[in-house]
Design brief:
Aminopeptidase; Amino-acid N-acetyltransferase protein; single chain; 5 helices; transferase; alpha+beta; 35% strand
Length: 177
């Protein structure tokens, strides 16, 4: 697979059909707070209400086709203005091909360059989501530990694994695991 065919771009409302390939798949949304979308209207509404106004939410494209999404959410409130959290989703047919890892590496480079205030980029993943843990590790994130019963997900308290990349103190333009 040619990973140079992976690009990121802002979402548009016309991406609702493509979004359904992962947003309606129970395998993909298993570790997300929301349930699978049933209709394209739900995807369209989500794009309009959550994605377009989001500070950093991009379509992951492979060979110019939207195959997933990746977002970075800046910390909010007191004591969190130096950090951000990353999340990603990828259509099942593209799992295990390096696409999510390549997209995540691209995003780390982008936010590092554009968000000079950012000192910590974190990714939190369900303990059972081994594939997503591998994505974070391959992208250079360091595992920090397990947070027990940390998130209430679809009616159940879940254990989460915290990963991070910390901006290097020796250089304002690089991260280190």
């Amino acid at each position: 697979m040619n990973l140079s065919m992976i690009t990121l771009r802002p979402f548009t409302e016309s991406d609702a059909d493509a979004m359904m390939t992962w947003a309606s798949d129970p395998r993909v949304v298993r570790f997300q707070r929301r349930h699978p979308f049933i209709t394209t209207h739900e995807a369209m509404s989500y794009i309009q209400t959550h994605i377009i106004s989001h500070p950093f939410y991009r379509a992951i494209c492979f060979n110019a086709h939207v195959v997933g999404s990746i977002s970075v959410k800046p910390g909010t409130g007191d004591g969190e203005q130096h950090k951000a959290s990353v999340g990603y989703r990828l259509a099942y047919e593209h799992w295990g091909k390096g696409i999510a890892t390549a997209a995540l590496k691209m995003v780390v480079e982008i936010v590092l360059k554009e968000w000079e205030w950012l000192e910590r980029l974190e990714g939190m993943v369900d303990l059972e989501n081994k594939g997503s843990q591998r994505v974070l590790e391959k992208a250079g994130f360091q595992k920090e530990g397990v947070l027990h019963k940390f998130v209430f997900l679809k009616g159940e308290a879940r254990d989460m694994v915290m990963y991070s990349i910390i901006r290097s103190s020796s250089s304002s333009s690089s991260f280190h695991p």
